[in-house]
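Summary: Need help interpreting a holo structure output

Steps to reproduce:
1. Submit the protein chain below together with the SMILES for fe (ii) ion.
2. Request a joint structure prediction with the ligand placed.
3. Inspect the structure token block that comes back.

Expected: a single structure record containing both the chain and the bound molecule.
Actual: see attached output.

Input attached:
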Amino acid sequence: MQTVSFIHMENGTREEYEFLDRMEDKYKAGLADRILESLRRLEHSFSGYKVDRLQHSLQGATRAHRAGESDETIVAVLLHDIGDDLAPYSHSEMAAAVLRPFVSDRLYWIVKHHGLFQMYYYAHHTGGDRNARERFKNHPWYQDAIDFCHRYDQNCFDPDYPTEPLEFFEPILRRVVARPRFNDPEYEARYGEAG
Ligand SMILES: [Fe+2]
Ligand SMILES: [Fe+2]
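--- attached output ---
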């Protein structure tokens, strides 16, 4: 079977959907490679800082690694700005969506809101509210998001920091991406995969 025969999903058979599942599994196996490509594209993201977005991401991941953080945390830091490429108006949400199957709910939440928490460092210079993060001050992960931004984001624009190359993080990324939580029934019931 090269392709299914149906042109409306409602007419597909079990065999066809099993075939499509196998095709999708093959495609998913290339996810780590596509994420690496996407990270490399960050090199050409917007400029003005002393380091490009790829170097910024690598610097954060390097700091997380040297601080003894878990693989999941290192990958969350590495990918936190991956949305800059295709979601410049909602980059935090995009990165969080990519990470969601591979990290804890806590890390997902931190990455999803990191843009808002980062505003603390600059928004007052441009007429914004640097304390916008305080809307989450009673949230159990509020301090964790502050720490994430303080240790692995706002301080990662130093061109002289001895930053590890992308290749250093490749095996860590592959390990994390090889463990999606798709078999967690609660996860599937809550978020599903359809659509
Ligand atoms: Fe960001
Ligand atoms: Fe960042």
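--- end attachment ---

Reviewer comment: DSSP finds nine helices and no strands in the chain. The chain has a mean pLDDT of 94.
Status: needs-info
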